[in-house]
């Protein structure tokens, strides 16, 4: 084991990483891993911001993403709600710093730093959505068991409540900046990982949350109590989100406010899915018969994998 949290001799290959969910178990304490993850995350942004040391970017990014992936699998969530929102905001800001160069009206050329900034941000978002989809599936099963007519089961469990503000705020950024992330940036080279299927896992999350029974929560524009999300207050006036459409959703005074906030986050993600369907180059396609969203785009690495029979099995 190195002092940066990596395991000497362990492959960085995506498949092995996914099949070895306990990669860090017994090697380092959770606190040490959080410490190493934080240092690696800061170091990556330092490379992107200063445009120096990029020769070691790929390996360091792979290391940080695998640490992030492992930490997200812990329950209770090891990250605070505000901490995750702040990481998403830092990622958005870095993309703005490395903004694209317009060669002509119709041609956009990304610099290496913008491409890497997008890759880092979207891969972290993809890891969030991948783990969120797994947690929602478990939560829906548990919810169906404990739900009763007298007291509806909570919309989200504690893990989902920690993660959804950051998911919501990053989809807000994607709403404001569709031209920035389309086409999808190249992910890390094939021999490095992880390589989250960003749009597939996002579609899965949205398809799952649409099935959550929210009929006991009233949301509308002419009710009594405003539903204001903490992440919206925290990032109010943040430049990358300035063009986000405002909403004035309200609820009734007898509705639990935390539940109303969870419901509002679901509404915002569902709006985002519809928005992706309506783009000039659609990112999502809505299947009317199945009532589900499906990605219309794939990253290069996932397109190649889908064409290869050897990669049909996870």
Automatic annotation (TrEMBL):
Q: Which UniProt keywords apply?
A: Nonsense-mediated mRNA decay
Which GO molecular function entries does the Swiss-Prot or TrEMBL record give? Answer: telomerase RNA binding; telomeric DNA binding
Q: Name the InterPro entries for this protein.
A: DNA/RNA-bd_Est1-type, Est1/Ebs1-like, TPR-like_helical_dom_sf
Q: Which Pfam families match?
A: EST1_DNA_bind (PF10373)
- Originating species: Rotaria magnacalcarata
Keyword flag Transmembrane: no
What is this protein's record name? Answer: DNA/RNA-binding domain-containing protein
Q: Which domain of life is it from?
A: Eukaryota
């Amino acid at each position: 084991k190195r002092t940066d949290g990596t395991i000497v001799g362990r492959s960085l290959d995506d498949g092995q990483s996914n099949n070895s969910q306990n990669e860090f178990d017994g090697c380092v304490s959770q606190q040490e891993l959080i410490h190493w993850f934080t240092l690696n995350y800061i170091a990556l942004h330092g490379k992107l911001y200063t445009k120096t040391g990029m020769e070691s970017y790929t390996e360091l990014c792979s290391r940080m993403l695998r640490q992030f992936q492992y930490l997200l699998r812990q329950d209770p969530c090891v990250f605070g709600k505000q901490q995750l929102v702040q990481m998403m905001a830092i990622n958005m800001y870095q993309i703005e710093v490395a903004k694209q160069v317009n060669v002509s009206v119709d041609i956009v050329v990304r610099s290496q730093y913008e491409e890497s900034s997008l890759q880092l941000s979207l891969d972290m978002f993809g890891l969030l959505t991948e783990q969120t989809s797994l947690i929602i599936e478990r939560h829906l099963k548990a919810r169906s068991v404990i739900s009763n007519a007298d007291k509806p089961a909570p919309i989200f469990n504690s893990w989902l409540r920690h993660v959804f503000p950051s998911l919501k705020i990053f989809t807000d950024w994607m709403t404001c900046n569709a031209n920035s992330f389309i086409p999808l940036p190249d992910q890390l080279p094939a021999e490095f990982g992880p390589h989250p299927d960003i749009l597939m896992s996002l579609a899965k999350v949205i398809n799952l949350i649409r099935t959550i029974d929210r009929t006991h929560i009233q949301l509308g524009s002419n009710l009594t109590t405003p539903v204001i999300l903490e992440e919206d207050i925290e990032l109010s006036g943040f430049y990358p989100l300035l063009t986000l459409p405002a909403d004035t959703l309200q609820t009734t005074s007898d509705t639990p406010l935390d539940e109303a906030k969870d419901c509002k986050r679901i509404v915002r993600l569902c709006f985002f899915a519809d928005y992706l369907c309506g783009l000039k180059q659609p990112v999502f396609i809505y299947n009317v018969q199945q009532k589900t969203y499906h990605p219309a785009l794939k990253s290069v690495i996932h397109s190649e994998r889908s064409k290869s029979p050897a990669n049909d099995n996870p």
